[in-house]
Structures are given as structure tokens and as C-alpha cells.
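chain below, 130 aa
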Amino acid sequence: MDASLTWIGELTFTATSGSQSLTLDGNSTAGPSPVQALAFAIAGCMGMDIVEILRKGRHPVRGLDIAFHAERAPAPPHRFTSVLLTFTVHGEVPGDAVRRAIGLSHEKYCAVSNSLRGDITFSTEFEVRP
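prediction:
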């Protein structure tokens, strides 16, 4: 996957990947901050997995609401130190099926939450253009 970001002023960037784009804003005015976008990505990724798993199990999911709550470190880089996702499933879906879907998403399928693991190789490069 490739993405590019272009600074458009203040703490605001336009982010593009493929045909999709969004605005990221460190002040959370023109768009979500990067940390807010990460929260959306974690919750959205797991939510999509859960809906797909429950539907494949032929459970009558009518809706899914997700509440995201995180604690952040008090000192920079203010990373997430804990995350609580509360899933509200609408429909006659057995609790065991929901529990299984959440576990499968978190442990196996959600690329976002699994990308936060500590064993990821992280590299940087740079160039300066006059």
C-alpha cells in the first residue's frame, strides 16, 4: 500500500492513497488529527471484520455501534497506553458469536490493530530539495 501526504499549511496535510483522500489536521479543525484518524481506523477495521464474520455465520445483524475510549501517555509521544472498544450489536445475535467475531478480528484479521504490534520494522528515509 502506498500513501502520500502534502502539507497545506499550519498543521494540516492532505493524505492520498489510491483514489481516496482526506485531510489530517493536528488542530482537529479541518479534519481529524492523526491520533483521531488512528482511533477511527482501529474501530472501523474491527467493526468491518465483526460485521463480515457475523454475516458469514448467518447471524441477523441489523446494526453495529462502536464506542472507542483510549488512555494516552502523559508525556510525549502521548501514545495509546490502553484502548477500550465497546461494541453494541443490533439484532438477534448470540453473545458467543459476537465474542468470537471480536476475538478473530483482534487476533487475526484487523490489519490496523495488528499493525500496532511492537515487532514491526519501522524505517525512515529523507531527501532535501532546494
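DSSP finds three helices and five strands in the chain. The mean pLDDT is 93.
thats it, cya
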